[in-house]
Amino acid sequence: MKAGELFRGAKTRTDRCIVVAGASGGIGQPLSLLLKASPLIDELALYDVVNTPGVGADLSHISSPAKVTAFLPKEDGMKHAFTGADIVVIPAGIPRKPGMTRDDLFKINAGIVRDLVKGCAENCPNAYLLIISNPVNSTVPIAAEVLKAAKVFDPKKLFGVTTLDVVRAETFVAEITGQKNPAATTIPVIGGHSGETIVPLFSLAKPSVNIPADKLDALTNRVQFGGDEVVKAKDGAGSATLSMAYAGFRFAENVIKAVKGESGIVAPTYVYLPGVDGGDEIQKATGCDFFSVPVELGPGGAKKAINVLKDVNDYEKKLLAKCYEGLTGNISKGIEFIQNPPK
Ligand SMILES: NC(=O)c1ccc[n+]([C@@H]2O[C@H](COP(=O)([O-])OP(=O)(O)OC[C@H]3O[C@@H](n4cnc5c(N)ncnc54)[C@H](O)[C@@H]3O)[C@@H](O)[C@H]2O)c1
Ligand SMILES: O=C(O)C[C@H](O)C(=O)O
To answer: Oxidoreductase among the record's keywords (predicted)?
Structure first.
């Protein structure tokens, strides 16, 4: 199979196309599998610097409707992969090893995200961009700056994927409460996506949950540092991939459903607050331009940022104070990387 080949015989790009950039990786492959199985997608385009022809050939044998295309950088592969895409999901970049912070990934992943988002700005300026690559706290500001410089920035269409924090909160809470279906409880997790910038709001769970006081610190810590748990268990072989693929698919599916007109979809995601309705007051309260909050999704992307800050309890206020501190530095670092690029 040649890169770029349409695996199910179609000759042209179809109209509901989702690109996975980093499709051959630990997240990219299972995420692509879930997307291929989704009836909501007409074409799944795989882009990576390696192995997409093989991953594409493999996925193309699945008897679901989505056509699969696969691209490598050679022969203008990025251009062909991105042109006409509706959604680009980006899990490209290196993962952590034990002892590393997400910020340690910045050196390599910042440039990868910059270049991929440049490709999006040039070839699919209207696409919804879902950024998974770490450090999300900085890679999303990088993406915003690249899109601004190209004069195609629509803040309603740029999302940092923080769904894994929500998924973990649901799971770990259910381990305490014994609920049979963890995902049936909605738990807002806000802030950023690393350590103390991740702030779970158990007091706002719906339906409400009763967390015993002596378990609250450990539960909060587990959600904030759940990524470390996986990095340690994988022992040098990377970080969360399967749970991230589940989370990334869940968020992508929400975006697709909202774009197709389904109403009432709300999901926490890391957005540029000044560009989203309702974001200004959250920006004022947090001092952060980028922040993950529950966002109502609509046909244009982020329809409204929901201000849950006014409802948090004192315990959560203390967590938030630490979050703001860490997050502002991460955001500035991303912006600086584009505005004053390293020589
Ligand atoms: N947002 C989250 O909640 C979350 C969760 C888990 C992991 N992550 C992050 O996702 C990223 C990927 O993790 P992984 O485990 O899949 O890593 P991986 O190394 O298994 O896969 C990354 C893939 O990206 C590809 N790649 C590298 N440079 C590229 C480029 N310029 N263009 C296209 N593809 C490129 C690689 O070839 C590889 O296939 C990491 O940065 C990780 O920290 C984020
Ligand atoms: O922990 C990591 O580095 C990967 C990811 O951000 C996670 O939360 O699992």
So the answer is: yes
